[in-house]
Write a structure and sequence with these properties.
Shape: globular
Distance between the termini: 15 Å
Radius of gyration: 17 Å
Structural class: alpha/beta
Strand content: 15-25%
Strand order of the largest sheet: 4-3-2-1-5-8-10-11-12-13
């Protein structure tokens, strides 16, 4: 389930969360690939914590500008009208609630919408970065992740075990197996990937999943 096609499916499905006119922050790693899948004709303004509003798709090979990078130190492009500013202004945008959507990676998410995505105890990390501000300040938080670890252990849990990035902040989870919504009633299965059954999703998920056959979509993308 961790083939390139599954990874691409997660990214393509996450791109469907975008809406015309949205201001969006894409987290470090796989979420940055969403920039390449913005639906044709849709205007989405991508924001980066290091001080750029108006990120474009990733550059073609040989077209990279080493001075133009995102928060993950990846070379990027800019769209017409892009703006540069101090990182303090960037975080003022985030903390002020001006970001419509943030798409982040996740190590663990639980059925209450708690998110852990910044450290593993015992491993050296440089810090949380902007993730804590994003999950607290963005109007909608979507987490994209593989459904299980490399060892096959569930990453969608009853209760997160790793240090939290934010408590009760996640609205939607997009994995290689399914799309799940965090609701007051619990974790609701909204979509499943092609060739995947509800029972397979349940077996790969520690958290309790609620399923409404009338609203469940059988194809994720």
């Amino acid at each position: 389930m961790k083939s390139e096609s599954s990874r691409e499916r997660i990214v393509r499905r996450a791109a469907l969360e975008l809406r015309d006119g949205f201001y969006v922050n894409l987290g470090i790693g796989m979420p940055t690939l969403v920039a390449n899948y913005i639906p044709r004709g849709m205007t989405v303004i991508l924001q980066s914590e290091n001080g750029l509003l108006g990120i474009g798709p990733f550059p073609e090979v040989g077209e990279e500008d080493p001075d133009l990078i995102n928060a993950g130190k990846q070379t990027i492009t800019e769209i017409p009208g892009a703006a540069y500013f101090h990182s303090a202004d960037s975080f003022a945008m985030i903390r002020g609630g001006h970001v419509d959507l943030t798409v982040l990676g996740g190590m663990e998410v639980d059925q209450e919408g708690n998110l852990a995505n910044w450290m593993v105890p015992g491993k050296m990390v440089k810090g949380m970065g902007g993730a804590m501000d994003l999950v607290a300040g963005a109007r909608r938080v979507v987490v994209m992740m593989t459904h299980v670890t490399k060892e096959g252990e569930p990453k969608i849990l009853q209760k997160c075990r790793l240090p939290l990035t934010g408590a009760r902040v996640v609205h939607r989870i997009i994995s290689d197996l399914a799309v799940m919504d965090v609701t007051p009633a619990g974790l609701v299965l909204a979509e499943i990937a092609p060739g995947v059954t509800v029972e397979q999703v349940r077996q790969a998920t520690e958290a309790e999943l609620k399923v409404d056959p009338e609203t469940l979509k059988t194809v994720m993308v």
